[in-house]
Amino acid sequence: MLIDIIALFFLCKKNGILAVQKGLNATKWKWYTILGWFAAEIVGLILGVLLFGKNNLENLTDINAFEKNNFYGLAALGLISAFGGYLIVKAILEKKPDTFDEDINKIGVNDLQPPAKR
To answer: What's the pTM value of the predicted model, to 2 decimals?
Structure first.
């Protein structure tokens, strides 16, 4: 679905910015976000099939095995689960310590000296 790709793009960008603030590799955490998104979406879809598609499990080869109502429910459950995967990756990333090296590098040598008297 197109909405998945658009949402995933913006959420990856958001996690990348957070990773840079933490002093971590942004590209690596963007890939973790994509992996978490799709893994949680697949788990949500499987859970939805197990919960809502019990009577259709024996006929999974048929393209029309699920009714439209089941399909929309499964798509919604998959999207919600995918967003949950993003939230899990974001929570892991937020637990990482912030980098304080930037503050140390901004201090100049003269900042440590008392002001000169004229």
So the answer is: 0.71
